[in-house]
């Protein structure tokens, strides 16, 4: 045994030792990741092709779940609503977060306080947010409509009680909740832009707008890219906020994909069908992220 | 990655074996040997019914101990499903409603308990749990929906209180008269309160309309009931659906704090109201219960039998329990639907599966329960139809009808269109599965 070991090349032993050491370091994390994420995800891909009802019966049904989805009007409603949310939530949150970051990137008195305030919504319990905003939006007694009436609106919107206004209401709250978090990312990005660039631009006579477009935005490109990717994924899988704020209603006006998955899976025990919808949601998120990466790469070069 | 896969598989297999080992193995059965069975329950500190049943059974069967296992109230079915799938569920567990009974039964998670129901011919709701002539659960509670009303507010508004003869039109007229009368008297309360549950409209419509059938996919029976609700909220005789939702109104505070003079609710609210009167969460006022308003005059009046709805709450047995535990659990199931258990439950304000004279006597002997004849009549005499007929389509249909409910009552979709949409969705998304 001992002679065998001695005859082995030294570097080979080192590689093995390093590999073992490496795995040992990530093992605690990896076990959790594997048990709670990796294995369930792999199982999900299998379940999407079965009619699993949670208690063992999981017969292979081929693409039946996907064909069913194609003809399922509720699925398309949920997809449309998800896109509706995403299309407005991303630019609004980006603009609000960037605006806040620019505002709070100066040497103001109490800037730390204002930064904390802007971050508050993000760390507040989502249930508390839903309850409070629902009351603010209350059509008859809520302060939002009282304010709008004060401005002269005769017929202020019904917000969460109206099928036309429930999605805008959710988007407003979603934007308000997440802008603080992305502001923080933008703030970090802003600090990395060298001050000399601004000075040089100023000497060249650039206006504040020109400095913003030609110095700030290019300097923030990596941050912007990261924020866009995170925001896109976060928007597509929006769930908790809608579940507690409108529960998908009134009617199906705020029903989004992840809630539809929840409904089919946990309320109707059609885990096979729910898995199939999750795969579609995953494919959408994945596809859009890949496109974003490609666009970003092309811009970089 | 490659290296850990075999280890991960081995670990998973070991785990699966351990879990499977928790399942049932046959033991020799001696009817008098000491046995402990576990029973699922929720919010044990505020829901005494499980302990009442466990203690009552232990008193007559001293060799059987019923141990309680606590679950979360709102996530009960999700947690139970997970435990059953993992093989760690208790021996006896509760069917909170009929909607999920099908899932458990069809999923092979309920033992055939027909032998336990043989002596329970007087309990009508036993039939709710029968599939192909076999019983898979036994009811221990059977709540029904009635009309709670505040006698003080009726007097203040100078409106005649219900006398058992009400159809829905009489109810709507009274609700409007109450609202006006209360305003004149300087009170802010509304005539009635309809909680945001879909049951408050759809449960009655399904139970009372002749030939209404949830599984037919024809929902035209809902129309008159929704017209009345829309009319009542437009007239200000009840808080609108939007207000109730955005302000998270609770029916307990709405009736208990005298914000509304009437409330349609299940009989479980009797126990809650009695308790809240002692804790101060509800005011002390004269109240009563009346039969739910009826579809037409043919079922009104105290000589007829009013029609209402309500799902039984039942207990079923986990098929993975050992033989000895199964036998003890079956005895327990026979007990929970008996009159003895009924009296014990009535003693804590709960409506048992079998409402006999003795049960009514016990319940109306509680401190704070109204003593008038109409309340007794409303409590004891009625035909109860299930809200959720047992079928694989029930959960899907109820979910889409819940969306229809919010679309109609929020005035988002005109009534006729909402019903047509619901019928189309039922046909294309649920009934074709």
TrEMBL record, chain A:
**How is this protein situated with respect to the membrane?**
Multi-pass membrane protein
**Keyword terms of this UniProt record:** Cell membrane, Membrane, Transmembrane, Transmembrane helix, Transport
What are its GO biological-process terms?
A: transmembrane transport
- Record keyword Cell division present: no
Q: Name one GO cellular component term.
A: plasma membrane
InterPro entries the UniProt entry points to = ABC_transporter_permease (IPR051393), MetI-like (IPR000515), MetI-like_sf (IPR035906)
Q: Where does the source fall among the domains of life?
A: Bacteria
Q: Where in the cell is it found?
A: Cell membrane
TM region(s), chain numbering: 20-49, 83-105, 112-133, 165-188, 271-295
Q: Where is the ABC transmembrane type-1 domain?
A: 79-292
Q: In this record, what's one Pfam family? A: BPD_transp_1
Query: What's this protein's family per the entry?
Result: Belongs to the binding-protein-dependent transport system permease family.
What's the protein called, per UniProt? ABC transporter permease
Provide the species name: Phytohabitans suffuscus
From TrEMBL, chain B:
Q: What is this protein called?
A: Sugar ABC transporter substrate-binding protein
- Species source reads Phytohabitans suffuscus
What PROSITE patterns does its record include? PROKAR_LIPOPROTEIN
A Pfam family per the record: SBP_bac_1
Top-rank lineage group of the source organism: Bacteria
Q: Which family does it belong to?
A: Belongs to the bacterial solute-binding protein 1 family.
Predominant localisation class: other
Protein keywords: Signal, Transport
Task: Name the Gene3D superfamilies for this protein.
Answer: Periplasmic binding protein-like II
- Signal peptide segment: 1-20
Q: Where in the cell is it found?
A: Cell envelope
Q: Which GO terms describe its cellular component?
A: cell envelope
Q: Which SUPFAM superfamilies does this one have?
A: Periplasmic binding protein-like II
């Amino acid at each position: 045994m001992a002679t065998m070991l001695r005859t082995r090349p030294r570097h080979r032993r080192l590689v093995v030792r390093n590999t073992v050491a490496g795995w040992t370091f990530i093992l605690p994390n990896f076990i959790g990741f594997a048990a709670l994420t990796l294995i369930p995800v792999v199982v999900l891909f299998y379940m999407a092709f079965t009619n699993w009802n949670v208690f063992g019966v999981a017969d292979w049904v081929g693409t039946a779940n996907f064909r069913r989805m194609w003809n399922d009007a509720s699925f398309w409603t949920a997809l449309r609503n998800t896109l509706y949310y995403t299309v407005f939530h991303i630019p609004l949150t980006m603009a609000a977060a960037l605006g806040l970051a620019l505002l709070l990137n100066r040497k103001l008195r109490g800037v730390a306080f204002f930064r904390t305030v802007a971050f508050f919504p993000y760390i507040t319990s989502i249930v508390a947010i839903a309850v409070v905003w629902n009351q603010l939006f209350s059509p008859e007694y809520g302060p939002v409509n009282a304010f709008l009436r004060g401005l002269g609106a005769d017929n202020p919107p019904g917000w969460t009680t109206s099928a036309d206004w429930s999605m805008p209401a959710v988007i407003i709250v979603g934007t308000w909740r997440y802008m603080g978090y992305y502001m923080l990312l933008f703030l970090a990005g802003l600090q990395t832009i060298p001050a000399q660039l601004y000075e040089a631009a100023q000497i060249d006579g650039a206006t504040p707008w020109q400095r913003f477009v030609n110095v700030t935005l290019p300097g923030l490109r990596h941050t912007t890219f990261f924020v866009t990717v995170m925001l896109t994924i976060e928007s597509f899988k929006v769930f908790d906020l809608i579940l507690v704020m409108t529960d998908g209603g009134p009617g199906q006006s705020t029903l989004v994909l992840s809630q539809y998955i929840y409904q089919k899976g946990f309320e109707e025990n059609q885990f096979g069908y729910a898995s199939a919808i999750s795969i579609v949601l995953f494919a959408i998120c994945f596809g859009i992220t890949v496109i974003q990466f490609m666009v970003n790469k092309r811009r970089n070069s | 990655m490659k290296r850990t896969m075999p280890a991960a598989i081995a670990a998973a297999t070991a785990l699966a074996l351990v879990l499977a080992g928790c399942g049932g193995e046959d033991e020799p059965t001696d009817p008098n040997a000491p046995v402990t069975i576990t029973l699922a329950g929720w919010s044990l500190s505020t829901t005494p019914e499980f302990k009442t049943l466990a203690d009552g059974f232990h008193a007559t069967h001293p060799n059987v101990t019923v141990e309680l296992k606590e679950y979360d109230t709102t996530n009960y079915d999700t947690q139970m499903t997970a435990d059953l799938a993992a093989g760690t569920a208790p021996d006896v567990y509760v069917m909170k409603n009929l909607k999920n009974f099908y899932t458990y039964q069809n999923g092979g998670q309920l033992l055939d308990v027909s032998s336990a129901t043989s002596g329970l011919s007087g309990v009508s709701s036993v039939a709710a749990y029968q599939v192909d002539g076999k019983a898979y659960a036994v009811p221990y509670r059977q709540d029904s929906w009635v009309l709670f009303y505040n006698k003080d507010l009726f007097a203040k508004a100078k409106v005649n209180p219900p006398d058992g003869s009400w159809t829905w039109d009489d109810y709507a007229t009274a609700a409007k008269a109450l609202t006006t009368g209360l305003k004149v008297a300087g009170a802010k309360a509304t005539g009635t309160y309809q909680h945001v549950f879909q049951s408050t409209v759809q449960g009655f419509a399904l139970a009372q309309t002749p030939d209404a059938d949830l599984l037919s996919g024809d929902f035209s029976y809902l129309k008159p009931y929704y017209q009345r609700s829309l009319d009542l909220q437009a007239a200000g005789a009840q808080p609108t659906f939007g207000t109730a939702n955005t302000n998270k109104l609770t029916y307990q505070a709405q009736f208990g704090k005298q914000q509304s003079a009437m409330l349609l609710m299940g009989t479980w609210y009797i126990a809650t109201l009695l308790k809240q009167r002692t804790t101060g969460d509800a005011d002390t006022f004269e109240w009563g219960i009346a039969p739910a308003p009826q579809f037409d005059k043919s079922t009104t009046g105290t000589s007829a039998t009013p029609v209402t709805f309500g799902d039984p709450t039942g207990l079923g047995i986990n098929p993975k329990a050992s033989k000895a535990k199964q036998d003890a659990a079956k005895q327990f199931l026979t007990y929970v639907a008996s009159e003895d258990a009924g009296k014990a439950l009535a003693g804590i304000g709960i409506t048992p599966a079998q409402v006999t004279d003795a049960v009514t006597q016990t319940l109306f002997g509680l401190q704070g329960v109204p003593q008038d004849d109409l309340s007794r009549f409303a409590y004891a005499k009625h035909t109860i139809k299930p809200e959720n007929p047992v079928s694989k389509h029930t959960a899907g249909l109820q979910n889409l009808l819940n969306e229809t409910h919010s679309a109609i009552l929020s005035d988002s979709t005109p009534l006729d269109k909402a019903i047509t949409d619901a019928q189309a969705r039922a046909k294309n998304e649920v009934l074709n599965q």
